[in-house]
Each structure stands twice: as C-alpha cells, then as structure tokens.
Amino acid sequence: MDGRNRKDIRPGQRVNIVLKKDQRTGRLTEGTVATLLTKSPTHPHGIKVRLTDGQVGRVKEILGQEG
C-alpha cells in the first residue's frame, strides 16, 4: 500500500518515508508514525508524517502496525 491517502495512515503504524534530503535518491527511512502533518485527504507525493524519532518525510510505503 502506498502512502497517498491520509485515511490509510494511523499513528503507531510502521512506514517507509522519504526524507527531504533523500528526495533526489529516493532513499527510504523506516519508522513508526507519531503524527500526520498533511491535512488534505490525499497528496500525490505521499502524506507527510513525523516519526516517533522526530524525522519528517512523505510516506512511500505502509508496512503495518507496530509490535
């Protein structure tokens, strides 16, 4: 599942995101969603989230629930 629909993403989910600095390379960072930052229901490049470790990026892949 990709991360373009806000309704598919919940705090506590494991996701792969692209950080701003990695947008050129497309390098993915795995983490757990803390908060959703995009307010609109969809976004063509992925919903922007903050991970529990403080990193911010756009969701490219939803991996599942934490734990």
Can you give a write-up of this model?
The protein is mostly beta strands and 67 residues long. It has one domain (6-65): SH3 type barrels. It has no helices and four strands. It has strands at 13-19, 28-36, 48-51, 56-65. It has a four-stranded antiparallel beta barrel with strand order 1-2-3-4. A hairpin with a 4-residue loop joins β3 (48-51) and β4 (56-65).
Strand and helix layout:
Elements: E1 13-19, E2 28-36, E3 48-51, E4 56-65
Antiparallel strand pairs: 1-2, 1-4, 2-3, 3-4
Short structural description:
Helix content is 0%, strand content 45%. By secondary structure, it is mainly beta.
Helix/strand order = EEEE
Approximately how much beta-strand content do the residues carry? Answer: 35-45%
What strand line-up does the widest sheet have? Answer: 1-2-3-4
The 3D shape can be described as: globular
**How widely separated are the two ends?**
19 Å
CATH class: Mainly Beta
| Individual helix count | 0
Percent helix = under 10%
Number of extended strands:
4
Mean pLDDT score = 95
CATH architecture label name:
Roll
Multimerization status? single chain
Counting structural domains, the number is 1
CATH topology: SH3 type barrels
Structural class: mainly beta
Question: Features of this protein?
Answer:
single chain; SH3 type barrels; globular; 67 residues; four-stranded antiparallel β-barrel; YwbE family protein; mainly beta
